[in-house]
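Lab meeting, item 3. Inverse folding demo.
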């Protein structure tokens, strides 16, 4: 009887790859074993986990202290503007525009309204009052400059009443330039020179005033302004003697009746 021969297959060292489920379970079992070993190693007697000694904290590096910085002063708080502020500014600018046009009446009216209606706006009030004074000064009535000898004499009288002798002398000089035969101008010039302590020049004008109008003689004898002259020796001569003789009378053009009275 013939023997059957077994056919032997060649053995290979490579293993078949495990299925996915087997590989996953093996991985989980391996991780469980590793965790058990870690836990057993960390656990001490009594069942309490052993803590590792904490490493000493590193000392912080010592940094140099920076110098103190200067503290800037706090800015003052700006109060909020009131609703009327813009109205006040608009009215104030309207007054300035009128002032630039030299319409002083309209400018003064606008500035007065700013002061009266917006008393809380102190910044505008000071400037409004300043420009209002300018407008009021321009609106004041101005006296016209004298043109005739009588007007210059009147201006000189006002100046003497205000004790302004230099202005009075100026006005009287202009009066005598306009009319050298104005007797009252000569008389007032004698008063002005007496006030300034100039008796010789006062006598000169008093002589001419009396020569032009004999009424000035009695007025000079009673006038308190000429009391200083009445105490001097030349006062009587100024009332009785012509200014510089008959020739001076004729050259000055004095009236003939006055010349006869002086002879």
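The presenter then showed the designed sequence:
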């Amino acid at each position: 009887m013939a023997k059957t021969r077994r056919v032997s297959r060649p053995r290979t060292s490579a293993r078949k790859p495990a299925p996915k489920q087997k590989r996953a379970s093996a991985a989980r079992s391996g991780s469980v074993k590793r965790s058990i070993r870690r836990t057993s190693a960390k656990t001490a007697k009594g069942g309490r986990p052993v803590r590792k000694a904490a490493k000493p904290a590193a000392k912080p590096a010592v940094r140099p202290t920076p110098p103190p910085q200067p503290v800037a002063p706090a800015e003052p708080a700006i109060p909020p503007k009131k609703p009327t502020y813009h109205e006040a500014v608009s009215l104030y600018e309207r007054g300035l525009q009128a002032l630039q046009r030299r319409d002083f009446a309209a400018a003064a009216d606008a500035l007065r309204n700013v002061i009266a209606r917006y008393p809380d706006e102190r910044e505008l009030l000071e400037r409004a009052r300043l420009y209002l004074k300018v407008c009021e000064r321009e609106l004041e009535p101005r006296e016209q400059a004298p043109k005739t000898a009588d007007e210059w004499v009147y201006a000189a009288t006002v100046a003497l009443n205000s004790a302004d002798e230099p202005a009075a002398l100026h006005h009287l000089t202009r009066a005598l330039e306009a009319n050298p035969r104005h007797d009252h101008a000569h008389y007032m010039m004698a008063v002005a020179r007496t006030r300034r302590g100039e008796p010789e020049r006062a006598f000169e004008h008093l002589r001419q005033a009396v020569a032009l109008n004999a009424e000035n003689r009695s007025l000079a004898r009673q006038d308190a302004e000429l009391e200083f002259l009445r105490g001097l020796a030349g006062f009587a001569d100024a009332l009785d003697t012509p200014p510089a003789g008959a020739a001076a009378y004729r050259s000055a053009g004095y009236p003939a009746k006055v010349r006869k009275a002086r002879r």
